[in-house]
Amino acid sequence: MSTRRLGEMTTVEAAAAVVDSPVVLLxxxxxxxxxxxxxxxxxxxxxxxVCDRVAEALGGTAVVGPSLPVGVSPHxxxxxxxxxxxxxxxxxxxxxxxxxxxxHGWRRICVVTGHGGNxxxxxxxxxxxxxxxxxxxxxxxxxxxxxxxxxxxxGPPEVSGHSGQAETAQMLAVAPHLVHTDRLAAGTTRLAxxxxxxxxxxxxxxPRLTAPxxxxxxxxxxxxxxxxxxEHGEAIVAAIVDRITDFVTAWxxx
Amino acid sequence: MSTRRLGEMTTVEAAAAVVDSPVVLLxxxxxxxxxxxxxxxxxxxxxxxVCDRVAEALGGTAVVGPSLPVGVSPHxxxxxxxxxxxxxxxxxxxxxxxxxxxxHGWRRICVVTGHGGNxxxxxxxxxxxxxxxxxxxxxxxxxxxxxxxxxxxxGPPEVSGHSGQAETAQMLAVAPHLVHTDRLAAGTTRLAxxxxxxxxxxxxxxPRLTAPxxxxxxxxxxxxxxxxxxEHGEAIVAAIVDRITDFVTAWxxx
Amino acid sequence: MSTRRLGEMTTVEAAAAVVDSPVVLLxxxxxxxxxxxxxxxxxxxxxxxVCDRVAEALGGTAVVGPSLPVGVSPHxxxxxxxxxxxxxxxxxxxxxxxxxxxxHGWRRICVVTGHGGNxxxxxxxxxxxxxxxxxxxxxxxxxxxxxxxxxxxxGPPEVSGHSGQAETAQMLAVAPHLVHTDRLAAGTTRLAxxxxxxxxxxxxxxPRLTAPxxxxxxxxxxxxxxxxxxEHGEAIVAAIVDRITDFVTAWxxx
Amino acid sequence: MSTRRLGEMTTVEAAAAVVDSPVVLLxxxxxxxxxxxxxxxxxxxxxxxVCDRVAEALGGTAVVGPSLPVGVSPHxxxxxxxxxxxxxxxxxxxxxxxxxxxxHGWRRICVVTGHGGNxxxxxxxxxxxxxxxxxxxxxxxxxxxxxxxxxxxxGPPEVSGHSGQAETAQMLAVAPHLVHTDRLAAGTTRLAxxxxxxxxxxxxxxPRLTAPxxxxxxxxxxxxxxxxxxEHGEAIVAAIVDRITDFVTAWxxx
Amino acid sequence: MSTRRLGEMTTVEAAAAVVDSPVVLLxxxxxxxxxxxxxxxxxxxxxxxVCDRVAEALGGTAVVGPSLPVGVSPHxxxxxxxxxxxxxxxxxxxxxxxxxxxxHGWRRICVVTGHGGNxxxxxxxxxxxxxxxxxxxxxxxxxxxxxxxxxxxxGPPEVSGHSGQAETAQMLAVAPHLVHTDRLAAGTTRLAxxxxxxxxxxxxxxPRLTAPxxxxxxxxxxxxxxxxxxEHGEAIVAAIVDRITDFVTAWxxx
Amino acid sequence: MSTRRLGEMTTVEAAAAVVDSPVVLLxxxxxxxxxxxxxxxxxxxxxxxVCDRVAEALGGTAVVGPSLPVGVSPHxxxxxxxxxxxxxxxxxxxxxxxxxxxxHGWRRICVVTGHGGNxxxxxxxxxxxxxxxxxxxxxxxxxxxxxxxxxxxxGPPEVSGHSGQAETAQMLAVAPHLVHTDRLAAGTTRLAxxxxxxxxxxxxxxPRLTAPxxxxxxxxxxxxxxxxxxEHGEAIVAAIVDRITDFVTAWxxx
Lengths: 254, 254, 254, 254, 254, 254
Prior knowledge:
The structure is a homohexamer. Chain A is an alpha/beta fold. Chain A has eight helices and five strands, in the order αβαβαβαβαααβα. Chain A has a single domain (about 5-254), classed as Creatininase (Rossmann fold, 3-Layer(aba) Sandwich). In chain A, helix 6 crosses helix 8. The two termini of chain A are about 30 Å apart. The model of chain A has no long low-confidence stretch (mean pLDDT about 95). Chains E and F meet through helix 3, helix 4, strand 4, helix 7 and strand 5 of E and helix 3, helix 4, strand 4, helix 7 and strand 5 of F. Chains A, B, C, D, E, F: GO terms for molecular function: creatininase activity; hydrolase activity, acting on carbon-nitrogen (but not peptide) bonds, in linear amides; metal ion binding.
């Protein structure tokens, strides 16, 4: 069976893919701290894994384009190793990937981001493309929030999220060799652990306040990754893959 | 009683406000179609009204800075009169307003946007400011979604939103002289009226697809503005004002 | 009688205005110190008042588009409350307003600026548009200098200008409730009060040197606003309105 | 006697000039049509000649820095050979020349422009530098308008200016070998020759409208260059040199 | 033994690496046609393989940072699948990777590029960093040209290079599963096959002319990849690794 | 005989040149230290001289366009008088010169740079133009390296280059009045004089490391300019002129 990754195809295969595989998935990650137990590339690893599975599930109507290994992570810069693009640069990068694919004939492109910090920028790219390339359809997708129900089923603590149970579980499902289970440590798990500023930044339903993660958690973790297990991770990943696959299937018929 | 609008203050009063009013609210709008019954400036009008009320409710701890009359509206460009900034320009504009206020000593700035199309760009500004001005606290707030419960209480149709009941009601509450009640007309109210692409763009919980409004509604309206009444509008506005006021109050203590 | 403000029109009315009102006036202000007696928004207030009157005088052949509330004011940044855009951002903003109007069919656009600090940037926009949009006619107009004869008739002091007699008089004519007549105070009125650098910056007919206003005046005022009266202000405004109206009338025939 | 041109100095001499010659003059030109008798580089040639004379007259307190051979000339692009920078690029170029000189210690820099089309951009650079480099003094100077009295004394026709009598006379004074006196031809000399649009663009005292030169003159000339003579040109150049020299002398004392 | 890839490290390990591994290697590729037998990602694959080996050879004094999967490839855009960044975007991307690493304390960063089309942009980044970050040492390295002697030993045809024998051999050494040996086909191998423009673009020692690859080769290949064998590829890779390792060793002592 | 310099032509002559002289040569220099004996403008002076001679040799098929007097020289900024453009600005400048010439009909443009620090940026411009203006042919040429054989024939010392024998000789050939032969002084001539970092930066065949010149030479000179003589300079210049002339001749036939 042939690859679904465009980067592994020859130009001759790519020319055929423009016709046979009208959707391109672009995996986007972050290069940022994920606490003491997960690697810096966690978000890209999950995004690539999801893209590969979605392309597989679609049976050839989509290909996986080049990755975006670094994303928008200014809130993690206090933690060693984090690299962050400005939102302008990340947007430009997505735009130029899109421009290249557009030139060869693709008109449906979906960025799959493993990192929530990329969401806002991707939404701005979608807006600018409406005016700049009206005949292109640009979509983007987060990962974990697509499986909110599966995540919630595990009964996460009051504060949970970055590098917590759900994200660690996904890594145990897709890249277990990169998880240091012996070093996993709980981060902030209760609102009462946050100072007033941090609590305000975590409030839902009101004005938005963005906090750097060093204000939210001493080790960069929200929630308790020690509770993660690979079966739950597999369930989360499977749900994400299903929902993106459903979306693309509907998209191809629209 | 003195004004809460910085633009109506002298420079001498502004110097005092830096000390006495540590929060600046910046009203952001859009210059875009709002169907056959509402004016192009609807979003700015609502944002300014909310800012004035919040500043009043806070009793002097916040001032209202200069407005951003034009926002990010590429999805409405097919409708006459719509002007849209690129996301880069809107972001730069917010940044330079912030830079000016920062220079005079303000460290808490909140953009209040009447237009959801500005949300993504405001979120990117918040991210870039984390790295560029770590000692600044930048917040932003939407309007209608803060009062989602009050909006839902009116039992909106299956499809509802832009220029629909809730937005029209707010205008009846804050600027009734600019609402042409005789021309209000229902737009798209049921998912079945949308084509497959439009339906996909309105789906919640999956990948995001941004659709131009001329794909979603013939007259630019989602929902039925004829059902709007000023009392409901007043309830929505009051809820928004309360929730932003609460946020700022907590912020000042954080 | 219907409004001349595009922001108060619906999209349906805007579509008609493209045909019936081929000229768009864009009011531009500044958000800057105007001494101890005038508000920060003085320049926008005057520009909007002039635009409204011009549109009225033209009887429907022009509409007033969205405002530019903040302009280019680096020379006033030492005074509290001043916000300044870089010239690049102000130019981009004007360009994107113009692009939107152009898209809907307008080909004659005139920015009316209450702030002289915007003049140079507006002139650069005009130049760049010559190459970028050859079928667009872009004009811009200052305010007070159009009525230089009326201003001179009042016998201003040797040094006069920003926040002085003529500007204060205009505010007494168009927004008297925002003028603190009890706090008006003379600023620099004689060349001899300036240091050598300030005097050089005020010299006419030679090389141009731009001075920050804190080098020119302790309270930010040039001239004596206490001499202002509303009748003179009305005469200045009327002259400005007449001359812009004459220009637009000729333009529509050109 | 040593050179006043920085480009002809060694780095050792430049180090001494930072101390001994605190003013740098930067000649700016245009690369644009000057009618059938004058060369494309006319404006740079005049600016360099003036700078050399000013530096000479100042006796060593100023040096002449690198030239800016191409300026802002979109209004001449319909005529062969014209090259125009966008206003943004011209501004950036000036800024980077200034940044380099600043780095070595210079704090007084004056651009001398032979081309009026550069004026607006130079004024924006001056504004942006106020905020960006508060301890730098940046000036700029036109040429011909400094000698308006000398120009007027020759009794120019109703329409006069670009490539007309005064400019041609200057070229006869400073670079007569580049003037094709046999090909000089009158351009537009009376307002009645202009169409309504052109006439409006030439109106003084009202709103500003920028016209491309092909709307103003068939051969690119305003006025009658055949009336030019080198003595008048010398008088104009001498007046310009005197006035810039006076300005710099005062500047050095300020 | 622990990983040398920063992306596989936790933030805690990254903090240690700043101290223990003062050099960061950044692999840069291209996403471009490599003829009928090699994949689009060929250049990144080779660059990553070399970086891994160099880091291994250095025994812990260097780590491998995030990849740059897409490079500057406008000359290949006529071939399906090629994506190219503008030189400005590629430069900005490198700069922001560098900025992030710098922030955490790294001062020696080397981009290892598998794609010669990135060389010029990397050289401009190096220049701009001299002025912007004088205490940073930025290096960059090509691959194949470091082993020019090993390449030459195989007696390549008159025209050879992109996707030819040496590049294919390297892929056979580092990623044989991605080489379609059955589809490898000779491209242009003799100067006589080029048209006059193509021949001029390939001339050495004179002015540089950049040709799109569709002017140089029908299948995008220069040389004959069928002659490639894995042993030669291994010799080339080993030479490259040795020479970069030697360089870094000397750098750490400088 | 008429001039080959476009700047000395009228617009009427330029219109003819588009047809008769299909190649435009653009001389690029630097404004940077050249040791104690050569002027800051050395690179521009040599580039202009070469362009004039090439245009002459071509007998009218090429014209010389406007100069680029300042280039990319961050490595020389520690020496007084050096002005450096960022690579982005230099690239934009070249692009806008090219855009202007393109507009008038020229399709073959060659930048001739006297300064090696401009090479990388020119190569990036060439790449971006491939995508942006596919019907334009853009070339660029260095000077001294075209005559490497003639330079080598003089037996230069182990370290040689900037402001050394070959460059000084060229200046003695084309602008002897600007060479201070009495002040010429040897700079670094042996690798052993360099520290480990400088030696690494001068290594050939491995990774590239860019060093500021104050790390390489106390007086900014590499090599020994005292050995220069005008005959050798003339031979170098003649070789450069011949090779560019040959290239253009071939280009015109391609």
